[in-house]
Amino acid sequence: MSYILDKPTHKSDFNLLYLFPIIMVSTTLTSIAFEPFWSSHYQVTHSLIEGICIYLAFTGFIIALTLFKRAPQEIQLLGVGFLSAAVFDTAHILSSVGVITNSLVTYDLAGRYWVAGRLVEAIVLYLTTQGVSFRYNRWLCFSVTFAVVSLLSFAFWRFPNLLPPLYLVGVGATLTKAIIEYTIVAIFSLSLIQIYRTYAGEHFFNKRHVVLAILTAIPAELIFAVFPSTTSFQSAWGHCLKICYYYYLFKGIFANTIIYPYQQMEQSSERFMLSFHSSPVMKAIVSVKDYRFIDVNQAYLNNTGFTREDVIGKTQREISCLALDTHQLIANGPVSNLQIKYNTKQRHIREAILNTEVILLNGNRYLYYEFIDITEKNRYERELTRLDRLNIVGQMAAGIGHEVRNPLTTVRGFLQIFANNAELKKYDDYLHLMISELDRANAIITEFLSLTRTKSSHQSEHSLNEIIDHLMPLLQAKAWKEDKSITPDLHPIPKILLNEDEIRQLLLNLINNGLDATERKGAVTIRTYSEGEAIVLAIKDEGTGIPEEAQEKIGLPFYTTKANGTGLGLATCYKIAERHNAKMDFITGSEGTTFFVKFQPVRYEKEHRTTSLAISA
């Protein structure tokens, strides 16, 4: 029993161990103060107290009837008990005031209705602890209950000798009534023991009102088993305890059918909102009626750049986040794993996988969106594709590079012999053209082999600014020839490990590309600067930018937008950057394109001050 009494409850409720003694003491003091008025105005006060009990019982029945299908099985049974108690207690009042009479003494007839009501209550409470369940039609269930209880009430009135006397004037409760009351107390006690054996934790928390009701009912029934007269202190005390008993039974029904379900719904809503707003996946709720945004989570705002004020209450057309064809697909019904593109507030295009579902909230239909951003994933996949292609190119080059060079060298040698032959002077232009084309083919193969190099790249400490300075006369000459200019913007930077020949090739490729993209009178800017520990090389042209459809293919071997390009220049640059443990990227727009090469210094070499190092590509 101490397990039940000491079971912890929520902070807003008293512990049963403290509340039960408080009830006993307060009802005792109330009865002592109330006894004179109870004795002098018994009919009025008795009818008032019983009326309160009937009101609580009938209200509990109405709640159980209204929420019959959703209520727990115990609440359905308690509804039956409350209906029975309301009928028997009504008959009890009517007989005690003389409205219902027969050959019995008034209080004896009233006592029969009393014990019948308490006995039904005890049996119903015991059945609830046994897990008895029924799921019949609620109207049939309560109609049968009302009919049976009404027939029993009629039988008590019509057949006075159906039970032995329960109350004698001047004596009080008879032995028969005492036995019935003790039986009721025994059933209540069995119910309490069953709750102790069956329920624990959260389940017990839902039973605590019933436990308190039973604990209050037991002393009340013991009092009514021995009370001397209806106007005595014991009778007043028993009726005060009965009000408490009914109140806690009613509170048990009210809590289990209204308060706890509402709390659970509120907790479920809180968990949903917590999951909704803290999820790293972009989520949104949109009204099906007018396609206005009802709510979005923080991930949605972070990825799109919008604020809540920009989105909430606006239509999808006003936000223009999704394309029209995507809206048409969504309008036809829920979608799953639909790969889409969406716009940010800055009009950047990103990629995502979209899942939608139709949900009901407060009787209204809404679209629930989940966007899984895959922009970075797709970028990595494209990078892997590029690297796979480079690997394939490397395997091809390793097999055929030198084999192709050998016959080219032979052909070029014979063409040179023919060019020195006086008889073939008239073909001199053709021979020199063929030699130049062979040299061009040989240069492509050389660049091809450089792209696929897997051998060690010998690096030593160099100043990137000095390498650029040494190349400037050559670069300026080419730029002046094309009526363009090159503007150096070199900031002080430390020396880093470089392969000078490869860096020269990278610079020539990037600057030549910049000059090709720049119109006459334009300029290409070469800039170096430090960014934290990294050294950055930036080459900016004044062209019209790289077309969007070409941006994803930048760096792929043999892809070029030039009429006479080989498509190996940028691929070679990416490979050189990779061998130097550098990251290469670009930004482009209508005002030009800037390529960045970010070199990361190697700490180990700095600490040991080595002058050269072979790093495997």
UniProtKB/TrEMBL annotation:
Signal peptide: none annotated. SUPFAM superfamilies: ATPase domain of HSP90 chaperone/DNA topoisomerase II/histidine kinase, Homodimeric domain of signal transducing histidine kinase, PYP-like sensor domain (PAS domain). Keywords: ATP-binding, Kinase, Membrane, Nucleotide-binding, Phosphoprotein, Transferase, Transmembrane, Transmembrane helix, Two-component regulatory system. This is histidine kinase. Pfam families: HATPase_c, HisKA, MASE3. PANTHER family: C4-DICARBOXYLATE TRANSPORT SENSOR PROTEIN DCTB (PTHR43065:SF46), SENSOR HISTIDINE KINASE (PTHR43065). The chain crosses the membrane at residues 16-34, 46-68, 80-105, 111-127, 139-159, 211-233. InterPro entries: HATPase_C_sf (IPR036890), HATPase_dom (IPR003594), His_kinase_dom (IPR005467), HisK_dim/P_dom (IPR003661), HisK_dim/P_sf (IPR036097), MASE3 (IPR033425), PAS (IPR000014), PAS-like_dom_sf (IPR035965). It is an enzyme of class 2 (transferase). Its EC number is 2.7.13.3. Residues 399-603 form the Histidine kinase domain. PROSITE patterns: HIS_KIN. It catalyses: ATP + protein L-histidine = ADP + protein N-phospho-L-histidine.
